Input
Amino acid sequence: MSRRTRLPWQKPTITPHRAGAMNKFGASRYQFFQPDVDGVEIARLVREFGSPLFVISERKLRENVRRLRRAFATRYPRVRYAWSYKTNYLNAVCAVLHQEGAWAEVVSDFEYQKARALGVPGSRILFNGPYKPRAILESAVAEGASIHLDHLDELYLVEDIAERAGKKIGVTMRLNFDTGYADPWSRFGFNIDSGEAMDAARHIAAGRSLRLTGLHSHIGTFILDVRAYISQVRIMADFMKAVESETGCAIETIDIGGGFASRNSLHGVYLPPDQVVPSIEQYAEAIASALMEATRRRSGRRRRPPTLILETGRAIVDDAEVLVASVVGTKRLPDGRRAVVVDAGVNLLFTSFWYHHEFKPVRPLDGIPEETVVYGSLCMNLDVVRHSVMLPPLSVGDSLVIGPAGAYNNTQWLQFIQYRPNVVMIHEDGAVSVVRRAEDLEAITALERLPDHLGNPYPHGLPD
Ligand SMILES: Cc1ncc(COP(=O)(O)O)c(C=O)c1O
Output
């Protein structure tokens, strides 16, 4: 690793000493640094693919999904895993997860078409979401996708489509209820407590074109208390038994959605992720034992235990990707704090609104770590990627590894002011490929059309 031969000159400043220079665990922070991703030097990646740059580890992605599947398969007899496209629908990410056996969990016509274009058969797609236009529902019914009904109007629509197609299809009902642990997401699905869910189930049973075969719920995201899942599974199992005895249906699948926390630091959570985020095995133990228990107590008729479906998103992909950004300017703020401007903003790191990401230089840097504000590259006051982080003195050109960044950033990022950069994947053999190329003017304006009479911006000559 090359070290500077000359130290950069920094204008001296007087920094007042404040109580609290020690961190909350008593010791002063030491500097982390991260020179590579899976053995591939980040400095080399930046030279070849530019900065900012998203870097995905195929190895970590596969490792995470295998661990999840193993944790559940060793504790429950029938488990299915579906990749939640909205978490990260870059084709390369989805393809890795499908190779690992994942179904697709989609929530729009766009995501449905993306999964189909990647070669996922309709029969391996779970179709969630509050708005599924008729045309895509017709394809989904024809292709045997598992449709998760969100509301009554959608139920009537699917009923109509199935009837016109002369089919009787199995459907899943999305449920909402209060687990007592997480704020209920009552806007999605049918409410159990008000009787709405049972009414809908009765309606399905009374009709000729639908069969209720599955129950689904997604109780929230970044759920740190495994007891929320135990409560969820018990409520769903109770509803399963009630709906089976009331309508005569046979529930084949119980889909508990996603929501497992990733190894990130949520705003407002005091302790570091290592101390507060349950392991995948802890989630699995809680969920599988609650479901086994509930299944054992299932009523008279002998049926197979329902298949447990997982739609885990962030816990699979978050720590398999980082964002590399580089310093483009350094500042001293009027209040004495150190600030740096980096070439990536909140347009690329949407999750900085929820997380305190880790920031690691790519090499050890000299100097005393100080509280630093990290501004992004947007000419917008809100573009602060980290309001306060301890960092050593940085100079223009120094790169920082920001992460975990794999969940929701490559889907919720904005093309705003700046081009979105290259995304590369480090493969298991160490090869690197661009899985989404950086935008350029042509890519961004490709869908725009300029009416003829607007072709010349200054038809009356250049303004003064
Ligand atoms: C229906 C559904 N399933 C799965 C997920 C993935 O959730 P997470 O990334 O928290 O695991 C979401 C995310 O909002 C969702 O709405």
